[in-house]
Structures are given as structure tokens and as C-alpha cells.
Design a protein that fits this description.
single chain; two-stranded antiparallel sheet; 4 strands; peroxidase; antioxidant
Length: about 80
């Protein structure tokens, strides 16, 4: 995540955080069990806007789509957030 953030020029702007053991995913209830399909425990598809440790927006995809967790949605929320 650090190398990806550096490549994108995100340093100091966006904190890139991995969840390799799914600790955060499990704690927030955002896990998706794909064991039956050979993929194990995964995070559901979502985007989240967090400010000062408080979740301001959670855009959770339902049914495997890609309609609310996209970059355009989260960027609009960032711009609108005080």
C-alpha cells in the first residue's frame, strides 16, 4: 500500500492502509465469505470517508455491483464534507 500511495502521489494526502489479516473488515462487519468459491474471507466492496477517526460516509455495494463505491462518488462526498 505504501508503494502504491507513493506512486500515486498520495503521501500526506491519503493514508493507504492494508488489512491483510482482515481485522478491520471483521470488526466493522464488512466481511464477505467467499470460501465456497476458493477465495476465502474477503472485504465487501465499499468506499469509506473517515475524518478524524469518525466514519462520515460508507458506500457499500450490494449484490456485487460497482455503483456506489466508485471514485466519483467518494470524491463528491469529500468535496461536500465540511
Amino acid at each position: 500500500m505504501g508503494a502504491w500511495g507513493k506512486e500515486l502521489g498520495a503521501a500526506g494526502k491519503i493514508r493507504m492502509i492494508a488489512d491483510g489479516d482482515a481485522v478491520f473488515t471483521k470488526a466493522t462487519g464488512l466481511e464477505l465469505n467467499m470460501t465456497g468459491r476458493g477465495l476465502g474471507l474477503r472485504a465487501a466492496r465499499y468506499s469509506m470517508l473517515v475524518k478524524n477517526g469518525v466514519v462520515k460516509e460508507l458506500n457499500l455495494e450490494v449484490g456485487g455491483g460497482f455503483k456506489v463505491s466508485d471514485a466519483a462518488t467518494i470524491l463528491a462526498q469529500v468535496r461536500a464534507s465540511p
